[in-house]
Amino acid sequence: MKKIVLLCPYFGKFPNYFNYFLLSCKYNKNYNWIIFTDISCEELNIPSNVTIYNMTFEELKEIIQQKFDFKISLDRAYKLCDYKPAYGYIFKEYIQEYDFWGCCDIDVIYGNLDSFISNEITNYDKIFLSGHFTLYRNTGFNNLLFETNLDYLFNKDIINYDTLKNLMTYEDILTSKDILVFDEDHGYFNIHYIYEKLNLCSYDNFSYIADVAPSYYNLNLTRKIDNYYIVDEKKRNIMFIWDNGHLYGYYNDNSILKKEEFMYAHLQKRKMDIGNNFTFNEKNFGIVPNKFINNMSEITNNDLKIYRKPDKTLKEYEIVVDKYKNMRIGTDLYRELIKRVRNYS
To answer: Is 0.90 surpassed by the pTM of this model?
Structure first.
């Protein structure tokens, strides 16, 4: 069994369902998490496979700055997504005993990771493409691939090269104030493009992930087309049962109730009602729009009807996202629009 650690700097305020995240970590005993945060965790029940390092955002910024001989841009925590591919280099002192290191988000609920990440899959040097869960083999070569000159790799025939030519090196990305999503597979200048162009060994299967679209009240999953995401029409109004470390999604397919196991659910910073009866001894719970229900062990067709609402979103969202998927540059406009959609009722 490979030794795997997931690294997560997180600053500000944890999601109110952070205890559910920790519980789902606890059941994945073959994995470890390291969280760097300015949030006090003294009153939390931290499982043995999760390690907390308390520090301020400025202290973390100084740790990262010491690794580079140029002045980095890191004025807000969200910019850390562009640093994720460099975590193996930045945090190398924390990961020496591990075969793989990874980056993750905490707006997720894990299922059984071992059910999806097999020994065969760990033959790859990089596993998965999403910033909310990517694994890298812990080698010196692999951990420095983020430094590869993107200008050298770039296919100048497929985009407006004059527009992007100043964003072709990792130094340009780490000194830009913009969020360039270097960790994801959006656009052309990212860590995954480097692996692809160098014919390096990487693996992805997006169907393992329950990636919940943020623009709807109901829990609608997304699917990938090329390098952007649309709602999966077959998996609208899905709901989940977490049962002793396994995560199952329930959805209606032509009036037939389907049950499917997932590696994890990505809730996309969704606001959730958690009640006040969490004990950390839960063996099962449900995830419905938009709350957690303790001691819920199954989902029925009737539940799918009771908890759903008619989907609605802003027409502007559809228009701007359609433009965004062709822009490939920055995410501020997109994030502002998502914020507006979440507040829409």
So the answer is: no
